[in-house]
Structure formats: structure tokens, C-alpha cells
Write a structure and sequence with these properties.
single chain; 293 residues; alpha+beta; Uridine Diphospho-n-acetylenolpyruvylglucosamine Reductase, domain 2; Uridine Diphospho-n-acetylenolpyruvylglucosamine Reductase, domain 3; Enolase-like, domain 1; 3 domains; five-stranded antiparallel β-sheet; 35% helix; binds flavin-adenine dinucleotide
């Protein structure tokens, strides 16, 4: 299994990378960790003439949190760094949890958070919690930056709203509301190195009475062509007192919205069932956590 011959480019600054990306256009691909890209090249699914390695560019790396403002995560930040970051664990636990479930330690130390989003696999681990947390992506090029909500950036299976010459530079996450909690859940065929057959994330907040749902953003992965932001679950929960009956209705509503397919990982019917199981589990877990803050 060999890749095609390609020229390897190693820009050191954003300006150099933007110049290469715009000059080479569709002949080039950005490479970050390479854990998706190289597999596709070996399978001859893509054969780029140039690879632009963006790992040496300081401006695309790292995790920066500013109290009251939120967090910026550089696109080439390794998944393992997100997994173990104390501030991510504290402020955005759903994201840290998801990062820790991606592949194996070897994969997590090579792969990047930007690569996980740009690969745009419906079963991708981190886009689901990032969307639930309200993340935006900053897309940079020689012409400047544009900021897009992540839920609009991923447009379909392996399809993203990235224009020629643009590079995903960073993710911007808003400061979480002080009383909110975020949680992540997933199911795969086995418990090691599996790709999820369903994943799910929620950002959840209670009113001061610790019973009434104030806010909820509920997102499902691997059940649609891109992360699916539920409309029905917030419509049912917000303003209502949390109860087992309400959770049951919410789980059914999530099942009604999900559009899973049958593939090598799971059947449509199994995924449909798992949406209900995970929704119940996740909402109850988020409710219990929100009562404690
Ligand atoms: C053994 C194994 C297990 C895995 N398990 C999981 C799993 O459990 N869950 C999961 O979600 N994924 C899994 N993956 C897939 C993969 O590891 C992740 O999707 C990873 O986050 C990709 O990141 P990367 O940096 O390696 O991306 P790359 O392979 O470098 O790039 C992926 C794609 O994104 C583009 N790209 C990368 N960065 C940018 C950028 N900044 N701007 C524009 N375009 C960019 C590339 O051109 C390419 O098209 C697994 C892979 C392997 C090999």
C-alpha cells in the first residue's frame, strides 16, 4: 500500500501556508496528523500532488482560555492535548470526554482537532460536543479571516464549507454559562478502537429551582450526514420541570429526528434504538450534574 508521489511542503508561518494553499489550489491537501489523509492516499481515494504540513505554524497551535470570554483552540492542537487539558476538563467536559474516546493513545497523540472536523465523517468524535458547546471555526486565507458556526461548516459526508486557499485556523468556544453543564455519550461495537455507531452531546442548564430546564442544546452524531442539532428536545424540555416522563418523551423525539443508515458499523434499526438509550442516559446524567452546580 503506497501513496502516489507528492511534494511535501513545510511552511513556518500562516502567510507562507496561505500563499501555498491559494497558489496550488486543488492540487494540494493540508496535512495535520495525517491519520485520515494518509489512509485515503494509500487507498488511492485521493492523490494530491502536494501536501502542505501545517504542524510547524505556532499560530495554529494550543489552547487558550480567557475567563469570561471563552476558549480558543488552535486547529493543529493534538486530540491528546484536548483530552488532558485541565481547563478543557473543567469548562468543557463533554469535549474532553469525546477527545479521550477517539481511537487509541497513538492516534490521539498524532491526530488534531482541526483534522477531526475537516475530515467531516458523520461518526467523528469531537464535532458533536463542539457543536453542542456553540463552537465557531475561524477559516483563514491570504484574504483574511471568516468565522462560521461549526454546525454550518460541516455540510455533509466529507464535505465542509472551506473555500480554495482557506485553512481552518482555530475553534472559538464561548464562555459556558456558570450554571450550565456539558456531557458526552457514545456507543460503539466494542470498547476499544471502535468508531462510534452513535454519539451525542448536551449542554444543559437548570433554573435556580434546580428542577426546571432553562436551556438545552442537544446534538447527535453518526445519525445524519453531519452533526444533527435537535429542535424537538429543547422544544420539549425548556421551561418544564425535569421528570422521567419528560425524558422518555425527549428520547422518543430524538429517535424521531435521527436519520441513521445501515453500514459496516451498525444497522439503521440498532442505531435508532441506541439513540433512545443514549438520550435517556445523557439527559439524566446532565440533570444530576446541573443540580450540583
Ligand atoms: C486507527 C484509527 C482509529 C481512529 N479512531 C477514530 C475515532 O474513534 N473517532 C474519530 O472521530 N476518528 C477516528 N479516527 C480518524 C482520525 O484519527 C481523526 O479524524 C483525526 O482527528 C484526524 O485528524 P488528523 O490531524 O490526523 O487529520 P489529517 O488526516 O491530517 O486530515 C484530515 C482531513 O482534514 C484536512 N485538514 C486537516 N487539518 C486541516 C486544517 N487545519 N484546515 C483545513 N483542512 C484540514 C486534510 O486535508 C484532510 O482532508 C481514527 C483513525 C485511525 C487511523
Amino acid at each position: 500500500m503506497y501513496t502516489n508521489n507528492f511534494e511535501y511542503l513545510d511552511p513556518k508561518t500562516p502567510g507562507e501556508a496561505f500563499e501555498m494553499a491559494s497558489r496550488l489550489g486543488s492540487k494540494a491537501r493540508i496535512i495535520a496528523g495525517g491519520t485520515d489523509l494518509i489512509v485515503l492516499m494509500k487507498d488511492k481515494i485521493i492523490s494530491p500532488e502536494y501536501l502542505i504540513d501545517i504542524n510547524d505554524i505556532e499560530e495554529f497551535k494550543g489552547i487558550n482560555y480567557e475567563p469570561g470570554k471563552g476558549m480558543v483552540i488552535g486547529a493543529t492542537t493534538k486530540i491528546a492535548e484536548v483530552e488532558y487539558s485541565e481547563i478543557v476538563i473543567e469548562k468543557y467536559p463533554a469535549l474532553a470526554h469525546a477527545a479521550g474516546e477517539l481511537g487509541s493513545p497513538q492516534v490521539r497523540y498524532m491526530s488534531t482537532i482541526g483534522g477531526n472536523t475537516c475530515n467531516a465523517s458523520p461518526s467523528g468524535e469531537t464535532p458533536t460536543p463542539l457543536v453542542a458547546l456553540g463552537a465557531k471555526v475561524v477559516l483563514s486565507s491570504a484574504a483574511g479571516d471568516r468565522e462560521v458556526p461549526l454546525e454550518n461548516f460541516i455540510t455533509g459526508v466529507r464535505s465542509i464549507d472551506l473555500k480554495e486557499g482557506e485553512i481552518l485556523a482555530k475553534f472559538v468556544l464561548p464562555e459556558p454559562s456558570p450554571k450550565s453543564v456539558s456531557r458526552y455519550a457514545y456507543m460503539g461495537a466494542r470498547d476499544a478502537m471502535e468508531i462510534d455507531c452513535v454519539n451525542m452531546a448536551v449542554n444543559f442548564e437548570l433554573e435556580d429551582d434546580k428542577q426546571t430546564v432553562k436551556n438545552v442544546k442537544f446534538v447527535m452524531g453518526s445519525v445524519f450526514v453531519r452533526p444533527l442539532v435537535s429542535k424537538a428536545v429543547p422544544a420539549l424540555l425548556i421551561g418544564q420541570k425535569f421528570s422521567d416522563e419528560l425524558v422518555e418523551k425527549a428520547a422518543e423525539a430524538a429517535q424521531g429526528e435521527a436519520r441513521p443508515i445501515t453500514d459496516v458499523r451498525a444497522s439503521e434499526e440498532y442505531r435508532h434504538e441506541i439513540v433512545g438509550v443514549l438520550a435517556r442516559r445523557l439527559l439524566k446524567e446532565a440533570f444530576a450534574a446541573a443540580r450540583e452546580v
